[in-house]
Amino acid sequence: MHLLQAAECLASRQLQICCLLRLYAQVAQWQKAAEHAADVAEAAQAQVDQLKADLSSAHALVNAHERNTKRVTSIKLELEHACALLDKRCDELSLQRYGWLNVGEW
């Protein structure tokens, strides 16, 4: 009878050891999956950081473009005004040349 009990005890221990080994293998798989997930998350964060930097650069370019557009518009208005003054002065000089305008009138 002792031999039968010993065999049952041994079988029970072997079953426990097999269960523990399976559990250990499962934990190792989960750990490997967790490490992979951490690597993926780190890479995703790096991409997010790069996208934020790209977006910031794009905003800076848009702002610079808007400033340049305003400056170009301002210069265009100044040039149009200067051209109008030059046209007026040319007309006055033409009239003066032909004696139709007194020199002191402009």
Q: C-alpha Rg, in Å?
A: 44 Å
Number of extended strands: 0
Strand fraction band? under 5%
The largest pleated sheet is described as:
none
Give the class from helix and strand content and strand pairing: mainly alpha
Kindly report how far apart the N and C termini lie.
Answer: 135 Å
| Helical residue percent band | over 70%
The global form is rod-shaped
Q: What oligomeric state do the depicted chains represent?
A: single chain
Any chance you could write out the topology, listing elements then pairs?
Blueprint: H1 2-97
Description:
With 106 residues, the protein is an all-alpha fold. It contains 1 helix and no strands. The protein is rod-shaped and about 145 Å long. The termini are far apart.
Give a summary of the structure in a few sentences:
The chain is mainly α and 106 residues long. Helices cover 91% and strands 0% of the residues. It has one helix and no strands.
Q: Could you name the key traits of this structure?
A:
106 residues; mainly alpha
